[in-house]
Design brief:
By secondary structure, this protein is of the alpha+beta class. It folds into two domains: about 65-180, 2-Layer Sandwich (Uridine Diphospho-n-acetylenolpyruvylglucosamine Reductase, domain 3), CATH 3.30.465; about 180-375, Vanillyl-alcohol Oxidase, Chain A, domain 3 (3-Layer(aba) Sandwich). Helices cover about 30% and strands about 25% of the residues. It is built from 13 helices and 20 strands. It has an eight-stranded antiparallel beta sheet with strand order 16-13-15-14-18-19-17-20. A five-stranded antiparallel beta sheet has the order 6-7-11-9-10. The protein is globular, with a radius of gyration of 21 Å.
């Protein structure tokens, strides 16, 4: 492997002394003990923060993938941490299981998705880490450790969302559900109506989310519910075509914003509704080809409409170059110590910026709005918070740091970026 590394969007780059892909937990342990530090681990490189960046060693989990074992009656599956979500879906379907929920990207490795609290949408549905039954890690001394929910629940709550700083996940057991079908519907409605009826609409379906298209005045609402009906054809996806159109309107009509706004509004208002039934693995994910950088904050659920309204106003007044939709989801509360959903029902708002241009002016302007309402940043997406601010957002922060010190007493996994996040002197 080349010793030049970059994340998916190309925004974060690194030139470590060593890039390695251990084939098993034993080889991984040897590398943790002996490789140049700091030692960072990469799943699929789909985070937008410098979590993986290191001048020492970057360890890829690409060879630690696949199914280890499963329990048919309990709907549990033990998988290796480098397994990509796209592969995991098919593995589970083949054994009669399904992930209870998913986000709309399936490129991540399950270890990375767990470590950054990646999630789907639904007020009763938790993020991926809430499915953890067992966790196996290689600690900072290169030793293999196993934790089970029965007997090690506190530790599971500490290491379930750990940014790759509480050891390297090697295998996890997930609590899944029996394979299922979903009826998915999409339709367009005025954003004013969506904000007014936010709580009702988000709670009316097993999973609900919506996208706001900047300068359109409209939201695209997406609802998914269990179904026992026969499968129907999923409509052809044209999100990439839509993005190309929005980008052309932005660029070609920069000199006439009123015409741009009218054309976007008319085009979005005419987007046809969708209604189909498919097996779960054919519903959640979308093909994302246009590269972007992203910021996502997790807010108290009832603050969601107010925050989104302010973000829309900021964008449409000051940032005409933005054309990517804003994504709004809900996530159930959980008990994981560094989970952004710790002890509160959450509204998550994600904003995106074309990877071809500098995202920082937009992100820096939006972040104070998110913070004003008590937002917690997505660990894998752009934010500027450090230890002093983060500690105020997480009631179990000190407990989590104590577990981290026990697992990694020599700070083998602590890069300069993580030292800033955790307040660690180097």
């Amino acid at each position: 492997m080349s010793n030049t590394w970059s994340n998916w969007s190309g925004y974060v780059t690194a030139e470590p002394r060593l890039v390695a892909s251990p084939a098993d937990a034993g080889a991984l342990g040897d590398l943790v003990r002996t490789a140049p530090g700091p030692v960072r681990v990469v799943g699929a490189g789909h985070s937008f923060t410098p979590l993986v960046k290191s001048e020492g060693t970057i360890l890829s989990l690409e060879k630690l993938e696949g199914l280890v074992s499963h329990d048919t009656e309990k709907h549990q599956a033990r998988v290796r941490a480098g397994t990509r979500l796209g592969s995991l879906m098919h593995i589970l379907q083949d054994i009669g299981q399904g992930l209870p929920n998913m986000g709309d990207i399936d490129r991540q490795a399950i270890g990375g998705a767990l470590g950054t609290a990646t999630h789907g949408s639904g007020p009763t549905l938790g993020a991926y880490h809430t499915q953890l039954e067992t966790v196996q890690i290689v600690d900072g001394l290169g030793k293999l450790r196993d934790f089970k929910r029965a007997g090690d629940q506190e530790t599971i709550h500490a290491v379930g969302v750990a940014l790759g700083a509480f050891g390297v996940m090697t295998e996890v057991t997930l609590n899944n559900i029996a394979t299922y079908r979903l009826r998915r519907r999409k339709w367009v409605l005025p954003i004013a109506d969506m904000l007014r009826d936010f709580e009702t609409m988000m709670a009316a379906h097993r999973s609900a989310e919506f996208y706001y298209i900047p300068f359109s005045g409209y939201a695209q609402f997406i609802a998914s519910d269990f179904s026992t009906a026969a499968t129907t054809t999923r409509p052809t996806e044209d999100d990439e075509g839509g993005l190309r159109t929005l980008r052309r309107l932005r660029t070609g009509l920069a000199w006439l914003p009123s015409l741009r706004r009218r054309l976007i509004r008319d085009a979005v208002a005419k987007v046809p509704a969708e209604d189909y039934v498919q097996d779960w693995l054919n519903v959640y994910a979308s093909d994302r080809q246009t590269k972007f950088n992203e910021m996502e904050y997790h807010l108290p659920f009832d603050e969601g409409p107010k925050v989104l309204a302010e973000i829309i106003e900021l964008t449409e007044k000051r940032f005409p170059e933005v054309y990517f939709p804003m994504e709004v989801r809900s996530v159930a509360p959980d008990q994981f110590w560094l989970s952004p959903f710790y002890n509160r029902l959450t509204c998550s708002i994600a904003i995106h910026h074309d990877a071809a241009s500098d995202p920082l002016p937009f992100m820096r302007a939006a972040e104070p709005i998110f913070r004003k309402y008590g937002g917690r940043p997505h660990w894998g997406k752009m934010h500027s918070l450090k230890a002093a601010e983060l500690k105020k957002l997480y009631p179990r922060w000190d407990d989590a740091m104590a577990v981290r010190r026990d697992i990694d007493p020599q700070n083998r996994f602590i890069s300069p970026y993580l030292a800033g996040l955790f307040g660690i002197e180097r």
